[in-house]
Every structure is written in structure tokens, then in C-alpha cells.
Write a sequence for this structure.
């Protein structure tokens, strides 16, 4: 069966609304062991730090990049810019200053040294950072990019910030306390009965033949799949009830940690094709989904699982 981020204490695995069933801690954490107390952190200061990094390093370079400011990492579709690197450095300094003893897992730092990912398995609080999610959009002058920051501890995502500076959007989620967009509470709701489901999927430029084959199972009646843009903004679209689900075949923590909590706190659901929680540390059965509600998640995962 399919699960939404948690296995019930009875041992049964069932898809449930993740607003009512919070994400499970990393296996190995002692039952009942407390996670980080967010009261020790000034959450408003975190938001200010995210805004400041974008204002200093990203916004001034939007539509102003020179050719030498853009570098290919793993191919022509995998780009990094000077804005990505400088914004991540800015956030690394400011976020660790706000929470002494914390560590940062940033996309660019991991690209330079994969051992940075080891922090996700440790006991220190971890900031998970994607400085410019949707770099391709950023490079092409498309405002559909965002900065993603999530705070995790022992495998639990506790808070997240999704900031789209060119669109004037700041979405914030706190574990167990709901989600807001520009200060207004978010509720994902449910698709209308019988409506065609709008589903964002892994972009074909970033999928291999096997991933394309599995995702093609969504090309069926009642579902309208399309390639995703910025992953962070697709999660925000779900939380706003603007699309119905995502189906993604990659698991980088910086792409998903913030958005999964955002959808969770907006009342949505999530699950993997193996009936296990999505783990920010990796090792997930793919693809996985996040959706406006449990019924939609179950439908998407049923189709994806049938391809295996």
C-alpha cells in the first residue's frame, strides 16, 4: 500500500493527509526524543536573512548576467550562476549565525564536495539551501525562480521558507503550525469531483528513458501532466490549490525539503511508490508525489507503481 510520510504505529502502511500525520523522524532517532525547540530561533530573522540574500546577490543579477556569469555543471541544462554561489555563501554565513552549532547543506556546496550531505545524518540542526531554484528560468530572464531554505533536525523538517523575489511571494511553513503566503494562511483544498488533474512532472530534459517510461503512465484520462518548472514553485502551486500534484523522479534534499513541509502544512499529502516515507537523507524509491489531498496522491502513486 501507499504511505504519506509516516508508517502507523500498528505497522500498517496507509496514505493519510500529512497535515494530520506529521513526517516521521529519521530511523535511529529514539522514540519520543525531542527535536529542536524552535523557540530558540528568531523565525522572523530567518525570513529577513532570506530576503537580504536575495536582495544582495540574486535580484541585482536578474536579467543582468554576462556570459561568464553562467557555468554548466553536468550538461547544458544544468546551470549555475554567480548569483547561486554568492547567495549560498551569504545564506550559509547568516543562517549559521542565527543558530549556533547548525550546519548547512547547500546545492553548490554539495556539488563541490558530496561529503557535505553527511550532515543530514548527524545530530546537528541543518539548514537545507537551494539559493536559486529554477536557475534555468533565472538565466533566461523568467521570473519563475525562488530561493528555498528549510531547517531540519534528525530527519524532521521543522520550518521552511520559499521566496520568489521577482514575483513578490514569500511562503513560510512551520511544522504543526500551518503555512502562509505573504502572511495569509494557505489551504491546498481538494480537486473538484471529476476534474482533470493538473500534474507537474520531472522535466524531460532531466530524465532518463526509464524515468520517462514510468512518468508516461500519467498520460491517461483525467490527468494532464506537464514538465515542471522550478520545483519549489510547483510545491507552492499545490499549497495554493493551483495545481493538483507533482510526480518527481529525483530526490535532492534542497529541491524538496521546503516544499514538502509547505504542502504538508497546507493540508496536502505525500508518498512514495514503495509505501515508505520520503526521506530527506536520500535512498528513496522513486518517483514520489505530493498532492493537494490523500485521494489525489493515492491515484497518482497507483499509476506510477503499476509501471514497475
Amino acid at each position: 500500500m501507499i504511505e504519506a510520510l509516516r508508517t502507523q504505529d500498528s505497522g500498517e502502511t496507509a496514505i493519510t493527509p500529512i497535515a494530520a500525520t506529521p513526517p516521521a523522524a529519521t530511523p535511529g532517532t529514539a522514540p519520543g526524543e525531542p527535536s529542536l525547540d524552535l523557540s530558540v530561533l528568531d523565525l522572523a530573522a530567518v525570513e529577513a536573512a532570506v530576503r537580504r540574500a536575495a536582495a544582495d546577490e540574486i535580484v541585482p543579477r536578474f536579467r543582468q548576467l554576462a556570459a561568464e556569469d553562467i557555468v554548466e555543471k553536468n550538461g547544458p541544462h544544468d546551470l549555475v550562476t554567480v548569483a547561486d554561489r554568492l547567495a549560498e555563501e551569504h545564506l550559509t554565513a547568516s543562517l549559521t549565525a542565527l543558530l549556533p552549532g547548525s550546519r548547512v547543506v547547500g546545492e553548490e556546496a554539495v556539488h563541490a564536495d558530496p561529503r557535505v550531505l553527511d550532515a543530514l545524518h548527524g545530530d546537528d540542526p541543518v539548514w537545507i539551501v537551494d539559493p536559486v531554484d529554477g536557475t534555468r528560468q533565472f538565466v533566461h530572464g523568467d521570473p519563475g525562480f525562488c530561493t528555498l531554505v528549510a531547517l531540519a533536525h534528525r530527519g524532521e523538517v521543522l520550518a521552511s521558507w520559499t521566496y520568489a523575489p521577482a514575483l513578490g511571494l514569500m511562503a513560510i511553513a512551520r511544522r504543526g503550525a500551518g503555512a502562509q503566503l505573504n502572511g495569509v494562511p494557505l489551504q491546498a483544498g481538494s480537486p473538484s469531483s471529476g476534474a482533470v488533474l493538473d500534474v507537474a512532472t520531472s522535466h524531460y530534459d532531466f530524465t532518463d528513458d526509464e524515468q520517462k517510461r514510468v512518468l508516461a503512465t500519467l498520460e491517461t484520462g483525467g490527468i494532464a501532466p506537464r514538465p515542471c518548472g522550478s520545483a519549489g514553485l510547483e510545491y507552492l502551486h499545490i499549497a495554493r490549490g493551483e495545481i493538483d500534484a507533482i510526480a518527481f523522479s529525483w530526490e535532492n534534499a534542497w529541491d524538496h525539503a521546503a516544499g514538502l513541509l509547505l504542502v504538508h502544512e497546507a493540508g496536502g499529502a505525500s508518498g512514495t511508490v514503495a509505501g515508505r516515507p520520503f526521506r530527506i537523507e536520500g535512498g528513496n524509491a522513486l518517483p514520489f508525489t505530493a498532492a493537494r489531498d490523500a485521494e489525489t496522491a493515492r491515484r497518482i502513486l497507483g499509476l506510477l507503481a503499476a509501471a514497475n
User: Anything to note?
Assistant: The longest strand covers residues 156-164.
